[in-house]
Amino acid sequence: MSRTTLPAAALAAVLLLSGCFGGTTEASGDGAGSGDRVRLAMLQPPRSGLSPFSDDAFKLSRWSTAETLVTLDADGVAQPALATGFAQQGDPRTWRFELRDGVTFHDGTPFTVESVVTTLTAATKASPRPRILDGVELTVTPDPAAPADAVLVTTGDADPLVPQRLSSPQLSILAAAAYGADGVVDPIGHGTGPFRLVSADTTTARLDRYDGYWGGPAKAAGIDVSFVPDGTARAAALRTGTADVVEAVPVSQAALLDAAQIHEVPMPRTNTLYLNTEKGAFKDPAVRAAARAAVQRDPIVATVYEGRADVAAGLLGPALPWAAPARPQRTPAAPATVTGTPIVLATFTDRAELPEVAVQLQQQLEAAGFTVEQEIREYAQIEADALAGTFDAFILSRATVLDSGDPVAYMYSDFACDGSFNIAQLCDPAIDAALKAASAAAPGAQRQAAIMQAEKLILESDAAVPLLHERVIQGESGAFTAVERDSRERMLITSGTAPA
Predict the structure, then answer these.
(1) Distance in angstroms (rounded) separating the CA atoms of residues 424 and 274
(2) Does the keyword Cell cycle apply (predicted)?
(3) pLDDT at residue 76, as a whole number
(4) Between the CA of residue 419 and those of 112, 408, 413, 416, 463, what are the distances in Å?
(5) Distance between CA 74 and CA 58 in Å, rounded?
(6) DSSP states of 337-404 as a string?
(7) Residue 17: pLDDT above 50?
(8) What proportions of the chain, in percent to the nearest 5, are helix, strand and coil?
(9) What gap in Å lies between CA 387 and CA 380, rounded to an integer?
(10) What is the DSSP string of 455-491?
(11) Do 176 and 298 reside in the same domain of the chain?
């Protein structure tokens, strides 16, 4: 499709990109000299004024303007960032974090113990609180033994995931001036990252290189951001050369772009068929096994997702690289013979692929002997019925790790007896015990093994039939190297992103 034949909304968005990114070389606002600036097209505009206590925090992280005490590696293990070291104290509820020297905020003020205390205390008092602190009682104080160099973080209950929690972009550390008396947090000019946020609104944002960055100056002069919700327009911006990096290219547009510009990143999101274990046809484990045996994943991936997804072997996919090697063998239940068994299969329209997945599954289940009736609505109008167990089967696209980078919270929510999102109505004491063991295990190999044991029991119950793991498609023009391709969508443009 040429630029002149774009739909009106898409054309308008491309023109906006062209206006925002009119120059290819600009001087840095911090005296770094001239250099190329990254032109970035993003999916969603800020929803909460770029408050770090909201999901807007992930934009601040992807722009490398706000930083956290720790980061996560590919396996979800906490690594040093603004904190150079951390360890649990003798009290299992208390962790000590040693802070990095020589860090300054973009407003010139120093990064100190008081900065950390101010940020984390403000987070605990925010309304609504950052999602990562749901159900967590947390206090932070200077370490009496080294009040200028370290903080103590104490939780109400022992929590082995405290470092992982503090890696959440929603707990990025900002300068004291960012926190207003009215509870509003202003990140502009108040981060510690390699790029200083200069301005932002609902259509654009500008960031300049910060020469005082503790890790050394960034290789790009800055970032010019445009928010382009229309997927066709984002793809067109890449195709017409008005953007260097594009978030979330739609599957339907990927084939229209140069294959060298398309990069598929596995997401920690699984498309799953949940079966109602409490009542109806799937109360019988053998009937659930018959449904599981009927599912053919490859045609769904090939047709609905045009091959741009990964066939599921479990609840956790390739976005968690440790999951597959740690997955134990399962013993599947024997399926019943099904003849005309009626079931109601439900899903929602908000994700365009799911109704198509429902059509494929209906055909597969009917071929196995079920009689299938579909129920499809908008998510806001169907969620309550799904959680109440109204349907026999429900197709859901579900994030499998939350802000801590750990899947236990998702598994507990969806499959524990008192799980808050238990669409399968599952209640199995053995599964609850496995989830409790995983929750208490220390991060690393021990926790991973416990998680996979819980996954094994859940899958052997046939309460959930994982179908596929989704990917996000990232577009890159090739004008810049070292653009991050992050399955957690925390990093994108970094200090290492450089003109090609």
Answers:
(1) 5
(2) no
(3) 84
(4) 40, 12, 4, 5, 14
(5) 17
(6) P-SSEEEEEEEESSSTHHHHHHHHHHHHHHHTTEEEEEEEE-HHHHHHHHHTT-SSEEEEEEES--TT
(7) no
(8) 30, 25, 45
(9) 12
(10) HHHHHHTTSEEEEEEEEEEEEE-SSEE-----TTS--
(11) no
**What's 500's domain CATH number?**
3.40.190.10
What are φ and ψ of residue 412, in 5° steps?
-65, -45
The pLDDT tens digits of the residues spanning 138-180 come to 999 999 999 999 999 999 999 999 999 999 999 999 999 999 8
Q: Look at residue 132 in the predicted model and tell me its pLDDT.
A: 86
Is there a domain that residue 249 lies in? no
Buried b (16+ CB within 10 A) or exposed e, 230-248: bbbbbbbbbbeebbbbbbb
Q: Do 169 and 50 have their domain in common?
A: no
| Residues β-bridged to residue 265 | 472
The residues with which 80 forms a beta bridge, in sequence order, are 70
What does the DSSP 8-state code read for residue 416? Answer: S
Comparison of pLDDT for 21 and 232, the residue scoring more? 232
**Which token pair is 473?**
């498609």
What's the DSSP call for residue 432? H
User: Which residue from 261, 217, 260, 266 is spatially nearest to 243, judged by alpha carbons?
Assistant: 261
Dump the DSSP string for 26-40: EE-TTS--EEEEEEE
d(CA 32, CA 495): 13
* pLDDT tops 80 at residue 294: yes
In a domain? residue 250: no
- pTM of the predicted model as reported, rounded to 2 decimal places: 0.81
Claim to verify: residue 94 and residue 209 sit in the same structural domain: no
- Its domain, for residue 109, covers 66-190
* Pairwise CA distance, residues 225 & 38, whole Å: 8
pLDDT at 22 over 60: no
Number of folded domains that form the chain: 3
Per the model's pLDDT, the better-predicted residue between 460 and 23 turns out to be 460
Distance (Å, whole) CA 27 – CA 10 = 30
State how far the Cα of 392 lies from the Cα of 404, in Å rounded to an integer: 32
- pLDDT at residue 11, as a whole number: 41
pLDDT digits over 364-394, tens only? 999 999 999 999 999 989 999 999 999 999 9
Q: Give me the residue label for tokens 């740690």.
A: 326
pLDDT of 466 > 90? The answer is yes
Whether residue 194 is preceded by a cis peptide bond, meaning omega within 30 degrees of 0, is no
Q: Which of residues 190, 209, 227 is at a domain's end? A: 190
Q: Is residue 185 part of a domain?
A: yes
pLDDT at 15: 41
Q: Work out the end-to-end distance of the chain between its first and last CA atoms, rounded to an integer number of angstroms.
A: 27
Tokens of 62: 């992807």
- Say how far apart CA 280 and CA 448 lie, in whole Å: 34
- Residue at a domain's end among 163, 190, 217: 190
Residue 254 in domain: no
